[in-house]
Design brief:
about 90 residues; mainly alpha; 4 helices; about 55% helix; elongated
Amino acid sequence: MLVEYFHANRQMEEAYKYLHEMEERRIQLHPFLDADIIEEVFRAVGVKGSSKGGPQGKKGDRAGQSSKNDKICEILCEFDGIHRLR
């Protein structure tokens, strides 16, 4: 994933660009990225992160709403877990 690549190369502005794009598309970050990476990128660019891993104020607007992306991620994660057991 590009966020992880730019994080590993200490290019935090570039990493944040992709995190921000994911947020704009309403893609949850945590199923795809480690929480430490998310927080480190936000901290490096001066964005205060929330406990959910996104910039404060952006996710709160969607609190309590489920999205198609959330359901797709849930299904894929469940499938991946089942697939790995076999």
